[in-house]
Amino acid sequence: MARLTLNRPGSANGLSVEMLKAMHEAVMVCHSRADLRVLILRGAGANFCGGGDVKDFVSRGEGLPDYLREATAYLQVVSGSLVRLEAPVITGVQGYAAGGGGLGLVCVSDFVIAAASSKFLAGATRVGMAPDAGSSVTLQRLVGFRRAMDIVMRNPVISADEALHMGLITTVAADDQLDQVIDNLALTLAAGARRRSRRPSACSGTAWGSASRPAYPKRHGPSQNSHA
């Protein structure tokens, strides 16, 4: 069993290029472990992930467009690496799961356990960006075309109960029981078959597999096999 924690609580675990590179390296280590049964993905502090690190973006000045392309490409690689991981991915959500970082990672997880007080938000179109982390594919597969369009274009704040009802998440847990519910599920999965096929479509290049392709040409970011 492995645990991967987004650990920038002071910025709501906002994703920078440096953080995404570290995530990619960690997920690739998981790929190298034939004995891995389960990967648990969490965010430190009050929020799972607030999306991109807006303060970091602002500090880039005229270099922002190139930086955003690089960050988006790395996020796409991270999400694709999670899709192709043979061990199931359990994501635990507290606070906000927003933007391509938060909602996108939720969408490529196998199981999502959300605290009762948690909230979900797409957010990309609020700042003139397209949905990333493959969520233009995965969100539609989870909740259907009409609802996905509403989530992406209107950007409603979605409660945990609403997310459960629409099929975005697996289970809602009481806030003070989130850790225990996640651990119980992880132990149950780890007790099963040593290796399991997570998503056959990830190998065929359709469905979730489409979400694992880079969003930009290679010159803007790492290749799919890069150890950033």
From TrEMBL:
TM segment ranges: none
Residue segments, region Disordered: 199-228
Sample GO molecular function, one term: catalytic activity
Domain of life assignment: Bacteria
Gene3D superfamilies: 2-enoyl-CoA Hydratase, Chain A, domain 1
UniProt family annotation: Belongs to the enoyl-CoA hydratase/isomerase family.
Protein name per UniProt: Enoyl-CoA hydratase
